Amino acid sequence: MSRVSLTKRPRAVVLLSGGLDSATCLAIARQEGFETFGISFSYGQRHAGELRAAGRVAAALGARTHRVVPVGLGALARSALTDSLDVPKHARVEELGDEIPLTYVPARNTVFLSLALAWAETLGTGDIFIGVNARDYSGYPDCRPEFIAAYQRMANLAIKAAVEGTWPVRIHTPLIALSKAEIIRRGLELGVDYSLTHSCYDPGPGEVACGCCDACLLRLRGFAELGVPDPIPYQTL
User: Fold this and answer.
1) What would the CATH number be for the domain defined by 11-226?
2) How many angstroms separate the first and last alpha carbons of the chain?
3) What is the pLDDT of residue 3?
4) What is the pLDDT of residues 211-223, one digit of tens each?
5) Which residues are within 8 A (CB) of 191 and not within 5 positions of it... i.e. 6 or more apart?
6) pTM over 0.90
7) Is the distance from CB of 231 to CB of 194 less than 8 angstroms?
8) What whole-number distance in Å separates Cα of residue 24 and Cα of residue 1?
9) 1 pLDDT tier (thresholds 50, 70, 90)
10) Cα–Cα dist 107/120, whole Å
11) Alpha-carbon dihedral of residues 128, 133, 139, 142, nearest 10 degrees?
């Protein structure tokens, strides 16, 4: 009787926002052989559609489980994503400026990575995937390579498993240097269904994307540069 050797897959925690970047990141983690555990955050954001999208993406891409963790950032950090401030809108992507926009949520990725780190150590892994991007992005400081490198150094000083040499913390950022078009191309190669995702900062009724916020404009440009239609509906198109 033949015996089948079963190799246990390494585990990875993947941060899921419900957008196309995190969906692609999850697909890459799966393609690299990880058993994936999705984590999203209910942090006081004005629109819960992104959490529903994160659940759809996690299910479609075979995450072992998907957790939504409540975090009270909205009570502490003022942002157009958590407060009554108007979300900036533009007619063209070229109008996006270099300044950090009102949609920046103070310390968001620092908090999110810390909670992901706690879960990762509990799961017996130091591998964390996050879909940050420092090329086609809104200029958030916690999406830059410098931030990720500094956080990884800190994390390896912070948890028992790393300090005792059981395993190191590795923050995987496979999208950080890619354009939005390159991210979409990679996702399509891996079978990502982008109709399941949600990127808009200020959706209308039925969670239809506005087409004018930073996230919508960057997403639309990525699909246009690739010559592929965006599969989600927009209010202004």
Assistant:
1) 3.40.50.620
2) 62
3) 39
4) 999 999 999 999 9
5) 27
6) yes
7) yes
8) 41
9) very low
10) 20
11) 10
